[in-house]
Write a structure and sequence with these properties.
Layout (H helix, E strand, L loop, with lengths): L8 H4 L13 E2 L24 H15 L44 H4 L9 H8 L21 H9 L20 H4 L12 H8 L4 H9 L6 H12 L14 H14 L57 E6 L4 E10 L1 H13 L3 H8 L1 H8 E3 L10 E5 L5 E5 L1 E5 L52 E8 L2 E6 L4 E4 L11 H4 L5 H11 L11 H9 L2 H15 L3 H33 L4 E6 L2 E6 L8 E3 L11 E4 L3 E5 L1 H4 L5 E3 L4 H9 L10 H4 L2 E2 L4 E6 L16 E6 L5 H10 L7 H30 L4 H15 L4 H5 L1 H12 L2 E3 L3 H6 L4 E4 L1 H5 L5 E6 L1 E2 L4 E2 L21 H7 L4 E3 L2 E3 L2 H10 L2 E11 L5 E12 L8 H5 L5 E2 L3 E10 L4 E8 L4 E8 L4 H4 L9 H10 L2 E12 L3 H6 L2 H4 L4 E9 L6 H10 L3 E5 L4 H11 L7 E7 L11 E5 L6 E2 L6 E2 L3 H4 L4 E6 H10 L2 H10 ...
């Protein structure tokens, strides 16, 4: 009886059932065959009787040409085991690629252009290199099956080679500010150790490296060096032809590759793109280090108020004490300046602090420039000693003082600053770092066996200068005197899996622990005392404390106690909330687990905090649920959930890295970026991502000994250097918001302070005349400042935002950035993703259309799989149904099919079942047993899953049994826009190739004769009507064996295909899409669709949802045939409805002969990603601006292009909202002013807003709440300003005769009138409609200033009238004057106090603006209750107060007739204020605007605001 392995695994897994009802097919019974490692025939197998030696030979060849072990891919169902280096999935990144630099004449090279996927042919060097690979298994003349260094070589070129130096403006390379040079960022090209002469050093100082010069000379964006380098290395490693199996063992070739691995280290590295847009932090973050009495630059009372102005550029400098460094994660540059504390001036500073009772220290804390200039002595980095510190200057003028540390480092400098000369591969096994005792004199210990000129590799300083800034460590390179980011460290010995598999020795691990620190994302937590000091020393609370002391001196004990109690309560609540927030962040970021690590050639279990780069750990450990660090997968395969980083919950497959990938990793120059390139991401395990499954597979021949096969991974980054660390940094240090309201509020407070000074100057003169003592005058002067600048002002500005966030939370919309709420009120452009945002999340299969070969036309739509023909193609061997069942990247995990939703829908349509792939053990040179992947997946039609193996094996038994095995797959590549599989039907003598992709690319790979006559018409019909169409093609290759299939190049597989048909998906609009788009368009808010789908499908969806009116013409640009896609290409702008209608390619206006048509501006533009990229690169600036204004549809857009579009719109002055699903929209969500992610999570780090509501109604709600919050903030600020000035007027009038308000009068006004009203004002709900005009965001606008000044004038005039009126009464008696103390009990005090109480209340009513941004005042019951209750109480106090109240409030008795007169004056005051706000404010504001416009014209100035450049462009298009 044959054993279990005597027949193919596909039959073994089958069980008997009823015959296939769809496609019954007899299959012969396979004869039993024994599996052995000898070359014996194996029948009824997908491998076509290939021997074990054949398997091993293919594996060796694939490893030699593609750098990957075959057994790595065991069970990997998504990727082919060749190590395909492209992944169309989302790459986790902390990126918001937002440009903070100047937006003037020089245009920044678009991010999209750096990721261009369709430019240029394959470089000849690479073509020659790849053709030099000699075919081991076929004849040398075989072109179809020639071994290739990568299945997707062309696609790799498209995606990488066209990438420009990241973050660098194309026309500003000469002024790069050392961002990318050795001087600026302390790392240069891999082959240039540094400037070799004075001229070169001067060039490096001005930021012009050889690389920059070469690029400028070439006149085109730089190409990536990695492909060129790898091509050269591939051509150098040509393999000799082998005609027998004897040369297929692993050992010889492994040794050969190992001996040459050092050669690859001489190749140039490649540049990587920039990373995320986190930004500069406010001061009060828990991590900021500082010296005593030296502050870290921080946010003002209202946040980063001054961050709205244009950030300055740091120029290049040759000063050895200064260095400009690029922070790619923030897309900003900072400047390091070295300082040493001058002991003499430091003593004088401390003496000054003592003499001024700490006042000088506070000033130095709030203005660090003062302390730096007074006590600091600028020192070169090399000469800095113990006690030195750095000033970190940001482009916004903030200063951060960071201490420099000198740590003992008895290790060679090469362990920190690798040079271009690397050790050979023979020494690549983690050479033990020699421990050298620290030399206090800084002597250098040279290794004697190194050649002269290479001693820098082993120089030992004995110490190392480091700086930790925002959880990023910098080290000073003694060779250049410049700071280098430790995050950029790569081990030059990472050349192959075999080179790194032995792990690290203990001394090396100790050295890297010293250099890198622990593998922990541990946010520093200050003690409560430290937080208390930070809070109390904030200018706001210092002002509060000074006010309390002042009031206590002035005998205002009750008022001082009440304010002290409120302030203490506020401080305690703030401290507790801050502490809780920090602890939540720490809990979220910290992670501990045990990891099995290879140390000193032995497996040991350690805490994950002890991991260092280069460690080898067991990734398949069942106890490991979360990836503890950034790591590279070396063996096995993994499926992880990266939703924590990307927001995309679709499982992501990870495959082992190739040797070439390791080499590229060791040579890459990331320039401080935390981003991982897409080609590397498919091998990369990101820290913090959840592990779904890790399979070990068989043990590779180079793997270290272990009890059982395990999946190996190598640590690449730890702690805050990981991608998760960058994500946490982005939350700790968010980008600054330059919202105009906050800047204006600070300026307005300054104006109020000036008014206080003027008022006191007038009062002081009167005090001197009356003989008031100087101490009283001083106290009264300070008291006047506390009146004009109320301590409660900052808190009232956040009331509206706080209530808005609470209302949004109740609606299922969560906000992690409160300042964005007010910005949401200024939004005037909304960009929507299509799939999952405007349309339903999933696609449903409408049906398929096959081809009638007789008529050469499409068949009728097959809505059911039963109707799909069982044959197809030229010879009938490639039916469309088989393509639908096999051409996908689905995986089976725990019995569940997972993968791309579109693939799942397509496979569900077939009704077939999917099983795991097949593998078998073989011998791999010596006694090592390894596993070969034979079939990546097996699919069967319905019913066949219950076949029993013994029934199929019975002699003479024939059954209706159908089974398809996917032999190899070429994954979807976004540049190619297609994927391909090679499929074998069991018992067939041929193999079939199936390809699915975008219909537009089929013309390049299919036989033109196979297309039906109505191809274009059918495609146009479906795309115009909003359906998504996927084209299917295939071919049958007779005689194609398993061996040849494994070695077939993608170009050969995807050639001369036969078009098989379409599969049509319908994507329905969400029910809430059209109504909400209508609301936004009615509010004159521009709507844009940004999608990766077909442009005609996008147009159809846009018209269906109302984003484009049905009457509007839509123009699509296409490249004129023959003009290419370079800078001299031409665009043809044709109407989608009538191709005869054209646009002028420069003005983008319709070209027509009818004059009447010229006035029609009802047309829109729809662009594709390739045209968008081309226009950003080569089109005139004016044309690009017009395109951005008129463009409504942006189709076939990559994630980078989406982010670039958002930035370009912002550059025109738009306030942009982006709404997407949080997956591939991550960059755009972060770049937008208001990013809204549709997700089930409560909060997403990808966007400021996260909505559980699955449609775009959340955008309407955010805009409504944003406008209401913005108007509320304005109302509260205006109210607080009027309150201050009303009280200032009252006190100034009383000061004129040495009087003031009483203690309880102040208390009553502040606590019982102002605070309840201010809180109640914030509870007004937003208006149900969105008004076409946005609310103003400027406190200095004519409308706001007219309102404030008008109300001040009316109320001040009323008080002045009452002051004069009361003195003219017959019963009036003049109060006595006390030179030591101001009296509070007199008739003037009573009259002004009673009238001012009504004024505080009426101003709240005047400024409680209702429609069009908020509901009417009567809809706010709390505010109505406050106004009515306080009004009634004030009337009671005026007319008939009780004796107790009169005594407490210092109210003098006045005649009843005078009380009636005061009540009448109050009524007139109320009427005048409401009348002015209702009828006079707007005409006056318009008159001022006209006057200003007339004055501007008179002076010959052009009208136009730089912040609203889009308005000028819109005017030019009319």
């Amino acid at each position: 009886m044959a054993g279990d392995n005597d027949f193919p695994l596909s039959i073994e897994a089958s069980r008997v059932t009823e015959p296939d009802s769809h496609h019954p097919e007899p299959v012969g019974v396979p004869a039993a065959a024994s599996l052995s490692t000898q070359p014996q025939a194996i029948t009824n197998d997908y491998t076509d009787n290939a021997t074990a030696a054949d398997f091993d030979a293919v594996a060796r060849e694939r490893k030699a040409t593609e750098g990957i072990e075959a057994d790595f891919m065991v069970g990997s169902l998504l990727q082919d085991w060749s190590g395909n280096e492209h992944d169309a999935g989302m790459t986790p990144s902390s990126v918001t690629r937002r440009w903070y630099g100047p937006t003037s004449s020089s245009r920044r090279n678009s991010i999209a252009s750096r990721r261009s996927s369709s430019v240029g042919p394959r470089p000849p060097a690479l073509r020659r290199a790849r053709s030099s690979q000699i075919d081991v298994m076929a004849t040398p003349s075989s072109a179809v099956f020639a071994a290739d260094s990568g299945d997707e070589g062309d696609a790799m070129l498209y995606r990488v080679d066209s990438r420009q130096q990241p973050g660098t403006p194309r026309r500003r390379r000469a002024e790069s500010n050392d961002y990318f040079g050795r001087h600026g960022h302390a790392h240069a090209d891999a082959d240039s150790p540094g400037p070799s002469n004075a001229l070169a050093r001067l060039a490096s100082y001005i930021g012009l490296s050889k690389h920059d010069y070469d690029e400028a000379y070439a006149g085109r964006p730089s190409r990536s060096r990695s492909r060129r380098g790898s091509a050269d290395s591939v051509s150098a490693r040509s393999v000799s032809p082998v005609s027998s199996d004897d040369g297929w063992g692993y050992d010889d070739e492994d040794d050969e590759l190992e001996s040459r691995s050092g050669q690859g280290d001489l190749e140039e590295g490649y540049s990587s793109s920039l990373a995320d847009d986190t930004s500069l932090p406010p001061q009060s973050r828990p991590q900021s280090p500082h010296l005593p009495l030296v502050p870290v630059a921080g946010d003002g009372i209202f946040g980063d108020a001054r961050h709205g102005e244009e950030p300055k550029e740091f120029g290049s400098t040759a000063v050895p004490s200064r260095q400009t460094i690029l922070l790619p994660d923030e897309d900003l540059s900072i400047r390091f300046i070295g300082y040493q504390t001058d002991p003499v001036w430091n003593v004088l500073w401390w003496l000054g602090c003592i003499v001024t009772l700490g006042a000088l220290g506070l000033v130095g804390r709030w203005s660090p420039k003062l302390w730096v200039r007074f006590c600091g002595k600028e020192t070169s980095f090399d000469d800095a000693s113990d006690g030195a510190w750095l000033v970190v200057e940001t482009p916004y003028g903030d200063l951060h003082i960071v201490p420099m540390q000198i740590i003992a480092y008895p290790y060679p400098l090469s362990t920190v600053f690798p040079r271009s000369t690397a050790p050979t591969a023979e020494a690549s096994r983690a050479t033990s770092v020699r421990g050298v005792a620290p030399d206090p004199r800084g002597a250098k210990d040279l290794v004697p066996d190194l050649e002269r000129g290479q001693t820098t590799w082993e120089e030992t300083m004995g110490f190392l200068k480091i700086v930790d800034y925002r959880y990023t460590r910098f080290a000073l390179d003694p060779a250049t005197g410049q700071w280098v980011m430790i995050r950029d460290w790569r081990d030059a010995k990472w050349t192959s899996a075999r080179a790194v598999a032995a792990g690290l020795a203990s001394p090396t691990r100790e050295q890297r622990q010293v250099l890198m620190g622990a593998n922990m994302i541990d946010i520093a937590s200050k003690s409560l005392l430290g937080l208390l000091m930070d809070e109390v020393l904030h200018p706001f609370y210092v002002f509060q404390i000074a006010s309390i002391v002042l009031w206590s001196i002035d005998d205002y004990y009750y008022y001082a106690f009440a304010i002290a109690l409120i302030s203490a309560t506020s401080i305690v609540s703030t401290l507790l909330e801050t502490k809780r927030t920090i602890e939540r962040m720490r809990e979220m970021s910290r992670f501990h687990c045990d990891v099995r690590v290879l140390v000193d050639d032995a497996w040991t279990t350690i805490d994950c905090a002890g991991l260092v780069p280069g460690d080898i750990f067991d990734a398949s450990d069942p106890a490991l649920a979360v990836v503890p660090c950034d790591a590279l997968l070396l063996s096995g395969d993994a499926i992880v959930n990266e939703s924590m980083l990307t927001g995309e919950s679709v499982p992501v497959s990870k495959v082992p890295a190739r040797d070439e990938t390791l080499k590229g990793l060791s040579r890459e120059t990331k320039q401080g970026s935390s981003e991982v390139d897409p080609d590397l991401a498919r091998h990369y395990l990101f820290s913090g991502t959840k592990i779904i499954r890790v399979r070990a597979g068989a043990r590779p021949h180079w793997a270290p000994p272990s009890e059982h096969p395990i999946a190996l991974a190598m640590v690449t980054r730890t702690g805050f250097n990981t991608t998760k660390g960058a994500l946490v940094r982005s939350m700790l240090f968010p980008k600054p918001l330059g919202f105009k309201f906050y800047r204006d509020s600070m300026n307005f407070i300054g104006v109020l302070a000036m008014i206080a000074g003027l008022g006191f100057a007038v009062s002081a003169v009167q005090f001197i005349r009356m003989g008031i003592k100087w101490h009283t005058i001083l106290v009264r002067a300070l008291d006047l400042i506390t009146i004009v600048v109320p301590p409660a002002l900052p808190a009232t500005l956040t009331i509206g935002t706080t209530f808005a966030i609470e209302r949004l939370r109740k609606s299922g919309i969560f906000c992690i950035s409160p300042n964005r709420v007010n910005i949401g009120g200024k939004v005037n452009v909304v960009c929507f993703d299509k799939t999952g945002t405007l349309t339903e999340d999933g696609l449903d299969v409408l049906g398929v259309r096959t081809i009638d070969r007789v008529d050469r036309r499409f068949s009728e739509l097959h809505g059911s799989v039963i109707d799909v023909p069982a044959t197809g193609g030229l010879n009938g061997k490639t039916p469309l149904l088989y393509a639908l069942a096999t051409c996908h990247a689905l995986k089976l995990i725990d019995g569940e099919v997972i993968g791309d939703p579109l693939d799942i829908k397509m496979f569900e349509y077939t009704g077939w079942t999917l099983d795991e792939g097949q593998s078998r053990p073989v011998k791999a040179g010596g006694s090592t047993e390894r596993t070969q992947t034979l079939v990546q997946m097996v699919v069967r039609p319905p019913g066949t899953e219950r076949w029993r193996a013994e029934d199929a094996m019975k002699t003479g038994k024939h059954a209706h049994f159908l089974e398809l095995g996917v032999i190899r797959s070429y994954d979807f590549v976004s540049a190619l826009r297609r994927m391909t599989v090679i499929v074998k039907r069991l018992k067939s003598n041929s193999m079939e190739v199936y390809c699915k992709g975008a219909p537009e690319v089929m013309a390049d790979i299919c036989d033109p004769a196979s297309f039906p006559i109505d191809y274009e018409d059918m495609l146009s019909y479906y795309t115009r009507n909003g359906f998504r169409v996927i084209a299917i093609a295939g071919k049958s290759v007779d005689g194609l064996t398993w061996l040849k299939a494994q070695r077939m190049r993608r170009e050969a597989a995807e050639s001369n295909l036969q078009f098989l048909g379409f599969i049509v998906f319908e994507n329905k609009l969400k029910p809430g899409t059209a109504p909400n788009v209508h609301i936004l368009r009615a509010a004159h808010i521009a709507c844009r669709m940004v999608t990766g789908d077909n442009v005609r499908t996008a147009i159809s969806v846009a018209r269906e949802c109302g984003l484009i009116s049905h009457s509007a013409s839509v123009y699509i640009p296409t490249f004129v045939p023959g003009s290419g896609t370079a800078d001299d290409a031409l665009l043809d702008w044709a109407s989608v409805d009538d191709e005869a209608q054209k646009l002028d390619e420069y003005t983008l206006k319709p070209v027509t002969t009818h004059a009447a048509d010229l006035e029609a501006s009802d047309y829109q533009l729809a662009l594709t990603g390739d045209v968008f990229r081309w226009m950003l690169e080569f089109a005139p600036v004016e044309t690009v601006q017009r395109m951005l204004v008129k463009g409504v549809i942006f189709a076939r857009m990559s994630p980078d292009e989406k982010a670039e579009l958002v930035e370009r719109l912002q550059g025109l002055g738009y306030t942009v909202t982006f709404c997407g699903d949080g997956a591939n929209d991550c960059g755009a969500l972060k770049a937008a002013d208001v990013g809204v992610s549709l997700s089930e999570a409560e909060a997403s780090v990808a966007a400021p807003f996260t909505s559980r509501t699955p449609d775009i109604s959340c955008v309407v709600e955010i805009i409504r709440e944003g406008r209401a919050a913005l108007v509320t903030s304005f109302s509260c600020f205006k109210y607080m300003a009027l309150y201050s000035l009303i009280q200032f007027t009252t006190v100034t009038l009383l000061y004129s005769f040495a009087s003031s308000l009483g203690d309880f009068q102040f208390l009553y006004i502040d606590l019982f009138i102002i605070i309840p009203i201010a809180v109640a004002m914030g509870r007004t709900l937003p208006y149900h409609k969105i008004h076409p005009k946005r609310p103003t965001a400027s406190l200095v606008s004519k409308k706001v200033l007219t309102s404030i000044i008008g109300q001040i004038a009316i109320n001040s005039a009323v008080q002045a009238f009452v002051f004069v009126w009361v003195r003219r009464q017959a019963w009036y008696t003049e109060p006595d004057v006390d030179s030591d103390k101001l009296e509070t009990f007199n008739f003037e005090n009573t009259a002004l106090f009673l009238v001012s109480c009504f004024q505080y209340i009426l101003v709240a009513g005047v400024f409680s603006v209702g429609p069009p941004y908020r509901k009417p005042i009567y809809s706010n019951p709390s505010l109505v209750a406050c106004l009515l209750g306080l009004g009634a109480f004030s009337t009671y106090v005026l007319l008939a107060p009780s004796r107790a109240i009169a005594l407490v409030l210092d109210i003098a008795a006045v005649p009843a007739g005078f009380k009636a007169e005061l009540l009448a004056i109050v009524a007139l005051n109320i009427g005048a204020c409401f009348a002015f706000e209702r009828w006079a404010e707007r005409p006056i504001a318009r008159a001022l605007a006209l006057a200003k416009r007339w004055q501007r014209r008179r002076r010959g100035r052009k009208h136009g605001h730089p912040d609203n450049h889009y308005k000028v462009i819109e005017g030019s298009l009319r």
